[in-house]
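Field: COMPLEX_INPUT
Field: COMPONENT_COUNT = two
Field: RESIDUE_TOTAL = 786
Field: MODE = joint
Values follow.
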Amino acid sequence: MFSEIHMPKGFKCAGISAGIKASGIKDMAFIFSELPAAAAGVFTTNQVCAAPVKVCRAHLQHGVARAIVMNSGIANACTGSAGMVAATDMAAETAKVIGCEPQEIFVCSTGKIGPQLPLEKIIAGIGKLFDVALIENVQDTAEAMMTTDTRPKVAVEELHIEGKSVRIVGFAKGAGMIEPNMATMLSYITTDAAVEQHALQAALKRAVDSSFNRISIDGDQSTNDTVLALANGAAENRPLDESSHDWGVFFQALEKVCFELAMMIVHDGEGADKFVTVNVTGAASAEDAELAARAVANSMLNKTAWAGCYPDWGRIMDAIGYSKARVIEEQVDIFYDDTQAVAGGCLSGVAQEDLIKVVSQTDFAININLHIGDGEAVVYTCNCTEEYVRINF
Amino acid sequence: MFSEIHMPKGFKCAGISAGIKASGIKDMAFIFSELPAAAAGVFTTNQVCAAPVKVCRAHLQHGVARAIVMNSGIANACTGSAGMVAATDMAAETAKVIGCEPQEIFVCSTGKIGPQLPLEKIIAGIGKLFDVALIENVQDTAEAMMTTDTRPKVAVEELHIEGKSVRIVGFAKGAGMIEPNMATMLSYITTDAAVEQHALQAALKRAVDSSFNRISIDGDQSTNDTVLALANGAAENRPLDESSHDWGVFFQALEKVCFELAMMIVHDGEGADKFVTVNVTGAASAEDAELAARAVANSMLNKTAWAGCYPDWGRIMDAIGYSKARVIEEQVDIFYDDTQAVAGGCLSGVAQEDLIKVVSQTDFAININLHIGDGEAVVYTCNCTEEYVRINF
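Field: COMPLEX_OUTPUT
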């Protein structure tokens, strides 16, 4: 599937089975930069956060990365000081193999919260990964990141900066906006562009806000969510920052990779078979628009109605009403795609069959205009089926 | 089931089929006081609220009630000015039949959001209800309130005030903390005690806070939620207020009726088969304790884990971590009933089988100690099964 994809210049990657999951299933991945890369990161805001997140946050102070090493199967979250030792050792061991400082290694884990990492298997796995990474293997890397995902997730952009050809390759895992069973969204973005670290960090934050932060979660925000970006400069452009001529080109490509990966996560939502875009316009502010959009996207009553092809706009009115956004009931218009369901807070003249037609599609939009101000927001989400409950049993 | 139950002195009640729902299914209820009763009410805080809620709020200014008239099947929410006319007419017509002021009539509707009330059927129903209400019928009244409820909900308390015997009879509908398909929690409390209106209002507010407001909803707060209390004084005690000798006895009985009805709602949760009590202690404040308890109780990952008899305490750690409550990961203890799962933020030495034993029960508690301060809160909730998704299709 991704076997044709090449990494940006100077990057290698690998995915292997280290024996953390059941025999033979890939469970460790490695992304390695031959050159020191500018590093940026965005992490979960959960007060309960995994040991590898704490280690990544500390290492990011250094601002330079040589590698990301990760495991799936066990989250190394709620594991106390033993978990911190394991995450630190995982970085130190990788640094030793590569021959760099431990602060230049970023570590991630995803999987069950609670159990300790099997450190011997991890350390053996690091050696094996480094050997395999001498040949890049995008497919294996993406597969090793998976937990309840049904498919690996990779996005690629090619662009030109000052006439030099640049690549961005991004990886992600996560089984949907309905927060995955295994409780983590992870994404790694690699590029051979040279980018100033502070500019990369600001760009990543912005790109995450308009991509991963726009997909709906059910509030079960993970202890391990991590997005990392590594820019190693192998393309030999002059280091980019916000004042560079080609900054816009670079930022758009970065944002596009993040957006594509985020959409892949929603499309792979646990048990989901519909992709729903919730647009709110006319809110008192952008914040209000977001609050209203999230209330609709996260409502179980809306998610189950969509699953049943049931155009219950009353549940949408209900959700925006209890959201913290300012709502004037009599001014609300709601459309399913272009078909108006609600006019001025009441049923429009639409025929129920026309709404059923829209909500029966596998991809449709709910467009809500609050008619108060200029605030806008969009959230991407999916439906909730019985399969979701079965997966999370 | 409730055919043996008598209303408080001076109250009559009835439930009939007015043809709003499918043929023969009861869909209108009536609670009538022969004497003017002190009235108290607590309503949804949803910005989108049903016409009958608006009418009840206005009528409550008057502070006196003669009757509650309600229909199930259609919520009269998001129905604009036509809906307001219907709710007002419903009150006016009832007042005419009884011979009282329209402000003395409280109206409620529950059911589908959007459609207009069939006013002719409602008006015919009011006449029929008044005839039938000459004999009290608690069973029919409770049944007529039901939507996705699987059983009617009535609670009774008997007490003595200044040597006079007093009764409190409460009705409720609502199919669970997972907000009902038909989107409403309604409850009516009647008593023949004489109670000052301002004291009744304050007491009802307090009783609702420790009962209906302690059951977990999934955020889908209804447009129609209404709790009404009517005290008609037929017991002939001197009117009670907070300074009365027997105030405590009265308040406790009122609170008990509200609590029993609230527990009936959780036990009848849509598709649910487990009752779960979430206790949080040691929080920085009572508000923090409530935020943490609600995060756990409303988490789909927790609800589905309980359905699967899966003691996934990591999902509980995750939920308190993203709640707005202050949490110090290393200090958290979590127990399933008395069995400790988490000690200081990590897995205790407990055997998984022991936790499975607790979570396999149909009724258990999650006890969380944050070890920060003295704040405490409890929330009552239920599990989420595939049946929930089927019901809300």
